[in-house]
Amino acid sequence: MLYSFPHVLGAPGIGTTAANQVRGLVNRGLEVTVCTASVAGSRDGLGGDVIETLSVAGRRIPHRALGGDRALRYHDWRASRLLSEGFEVVHGWPIASVRTFEAARSAGVAGLRESPNTYTRVAYRRVAEEVARLGLELPAGASHQHNSERLAREEREYDLCSFVLAPSHAVAESYMERESGPPPILRHRYGFDPKRFELPAQERSDGPFRLLFVGSCDPRKGVHYALEAWKASGLGERGATFVIAGRWESAYRKLLAPMLSLPGVELCEFTDDPGALMRSADAFVLPSIEEGSALVTYEAQACGCVLLVSDAAGALMADDTHGFVHAVGDTDTLTAQLSELAGDPVGLAGMRHAVIAHRDQLTWAAAAARLEDVYLEAIGRGPG
After folding, report:
1. 97-130: pLDDT as tens digits
2. Ranges of H-type helices in the chain
3. What's the CA gap between 264 and 292, in Å, rounded?
4. DSSP string, 232-265
5. Which of 131, 293, 306, 338 could crosslink 168 through cysteines, CB 3.0-4.6 Å?
6. How many CB atoms lie under 10 A from the CB of residue 182?
C-alpha cells in the first residue's frame, strides 16, 4: 500500500496520528510505502520504504519555504508518480491528494481519503457560528477560518477518492450535509500509545473530585461550556478541582476571565506529559463543538479517566458505561452529569472499572487491525 501524508510525520497532532497508523500497519506485516513531507523523531517501526518529499540531504524544507499550497501540491505530484509501482490501496490525507487519487483511479487502485475532522464545510460553519455567538472573531490563520480554495480542493478529493475514512459517527454523519451527496464512507478509529499513557500505579483515593481538560483552549473545544457547568454544579465550593491545561487564544481567555477565577479552577500551561495529569484525575471533560475523534479521549481513558464529552467529540466509548455524553451546548445536562459523577463515588468507581476493562480496544494496535480490515474491504469493493 501507499501511505501519503503531506506534513511532518511524527509531529504533534495529525503527525502523531499518521505515524501511529503507519507503525501499526507495519507491525501487522503490511508492505507500506510512506510518502511524507519529512519525518520528525524516530524512524523506528516506519518500515524500510520512506520517501520524503520536502527533505534534502536529511534536512527538512519547511512548507513555508515553497509556500504552503505549493508545497502541498508538490507533495501530491510526487505521491501520484508512485502509482505506477503496483499498489493495491492508497491512503491519502486532506488537501494534498487530488493528483494522487486521479492516478489511483487510472491505475485501478482504491483511494482512501482520511477525514480527521468533520466535513470541512460543516466544520467551518459550526465553528463560525459558535465564535459569533460568543462575540469573538477567529484569529488570523486559524485552522477553521473559511477558505474557499481549500474547500474546492477537498470537494475534488471527495469526488476522486474511492472512500472517505471516518473515525467517528459524528464525522460520518457530517457528510450527509454535502450538497452533492455523501461520498462512500468506511469507519475506522484512532488510538493511544501504551508506552506514553498508562494507568496510575494505584487506585485514586477517596479525596476530592478532580476534573480535567487538556487541549487547545479555544471556542471550538467548548471550554466555556465546561466552565458554565462547573459553576452551576457548585463543586468548587465543596473542595473539588477543575484543572484546565493548554494554550489559550488571548481574546477567548479574556472573555472567560471571570469564570477562570471560580473556586476550584486551576490553570496549567501546555504540557509534554498530559498522561501525568490524566492519571491524577477522576474524569475528563471535552464539550467540543466540532471534532473528528479527539485523541485525548482515547488517552484519558487509557489513564483511567471517566469521560464527560459532547456528541461531537468522536469518543470511542459507551454512554452511561464509560462516562456520559451530552448534546453540543447542553450545559444543563453536562451540569447534571458532572454532579452525578462527583456525588456518587460508587458509580464513578464502576464507570472507571468499565473504562479500564475496554482499554485494550483503544490502542493504536487495535486501530491498525481495524484499518487493515478497512483496506481489505476497499480492495474487495474496488476503486469505484
Report:
1. 999 999 999 999 999 999 999 999 999 999 999 9
2. 14-27, 63-66, 68-80, 98-107, 120-133, 148-160, 169-174, 223-233, 250-260, 274-279, 295-302, 331-343, 345-357, 364-381
3. 30
4. HHTGGGGT-EEEEESPBPHHHHHHHHHHHTSTTE
5. 293
6. 16
Specify the pLDDT at position 57: 66
- Whether residue 53 contacts residue 36, with contact meaning beta carbons closer than 8 Å, is answered with yes
User: Which residue, among 47, 148, 146, 153, has the nearest Cα to 93 in the 3D structure?
Assistant: 153
Q: For residue 311, what is its C-alpha cell?
A: 456528541
Residues 189, 137: contact at Cβ < 8 Å? no
Which element (helix H / strand E) includes 144? none
pTM higher than 0.85: yes
- The ranges of the chain with pLDDT < 50 are none
Q: What's the rounded Cα separation, in Å, for the pair 30 and 47?
A: 9
The two most distant CA atoms of the chain are separated, in Å, by 66
Report pLDDT for 85.
76
Given this model, what pLDDT does residue 205 score? 66
Residue type at 249? Answer: E
Cβ atoms 233, 339 nearer than 8 A: yes
